[in-house]
């Protein structure tokens, strides 16, 4: 089996939609409750690309099986050196190291850009796999917002994790 990490293409958006939709419908990793359309996901991808933010896919034997991207953490200018990451894998492919490889590539891309901090906003404090993935990659737990979302009939926490990129805060912006 051959795993390739590459920049996403417009032709990947349908596969990205197929990966993300189950998370929206059945999971707590995202607080979206209605799956976005393929066109909406294309617009989101185009926005990240226009901002020169990395948007990557994992291709396993020619099939897109995961994706990740970095986006602005917040809109205000003082946050310009901080990004928020997102990573999603196709159903049944967790625990194979694909998420680690994807996120490692994303971190490397961000370290080669102007960014100094990466924040993970993880839906559901019981999302052990995502928390462990981020911890393995050098993120530390910053805090938990308790019961800030309501999805699938229950209250859901948000876990914040953070890691420095490159020189982090040791040099001026």
Report on the structure:
The relative contact order is 0.16. Helix 1 crosses helix 2 (38-50). The model has no long low-confidence stretch (mean pLDDT 96). The protein has a seven-stranded mixed sheet with strand order 1-2-3-4-5-7-6, with helices on both faces. The termini are far apart. It is an alpha+beta fold and 173 residues long. Strand 4, helix 3 and strand 5 form a beta-alpha-beta unit. It has four helices and seven strands, in the order E-H-H-E-E-E-H-E-H-E-E. The chain is globular and about 40 Å long.
Order of strands across the main sheet: 1-2-3-4-5-7-6
Query: Percent helix among the residues?
Result: 25-40%
Q: What is the strand tally?
A: 7
Largest sheet properties: 7 strands, mixed
Please, what is the average pLDDT?
A: 96
Topology:
Blueprint lengths: L2 E5 L5 H14 L11 H13 L4 E6 L2 E10 L9 E8 L8 H14 L5 E7 L4 H9 L3 E12 L2 E11 L9
Helix pairs in contact: 1-2
Summarize, please:
The protein is an alpha+beta fold and 173 residues long. The protein has helices at residues 13-26, 38-50, 98-111, 128-136, and strands at 3-7, 55-60, 63-72, 82-89, 117-123, 140-151, 154-164. Helices cover 29% and strands 34% of the residues.
């Amino acid at each position: 089996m051959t795993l390739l990490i590459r920049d996403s293409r417009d032709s990947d958006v349908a596969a990205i939609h197929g990966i993300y939709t189950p998370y929206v419908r059945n999971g707590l990793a995202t607080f979206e409750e209605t799956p976005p359309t393929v066109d909406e996901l294309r617009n989101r991808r185009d926005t990240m690309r226009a901002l020169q933010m990395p948007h990557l896919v994992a291709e396993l034997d020619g099939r897109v099986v995961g994706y990740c991207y970095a986006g602005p953490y917040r809109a205000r200018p003082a946050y310009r050196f901080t990004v928020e990451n997102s990573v999603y894998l196709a159903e049944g492919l967790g625990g194979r190291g694909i998420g680690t490889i994807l996120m490692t590539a994303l971190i490397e891309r961000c370290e080669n850009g102007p960014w100094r901090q990466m924040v993970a906003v993880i839906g559901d404090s019981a999302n052990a796999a995502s928390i462990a993935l981020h911890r393995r990659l050098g993120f530390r737990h910053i805090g938990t917002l308790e019961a800030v979302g309501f999805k699938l009939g229950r209250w859901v926490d948000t876990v914040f994790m953070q890691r420095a990129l490159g020189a982090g805060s040791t040099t001026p912006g």
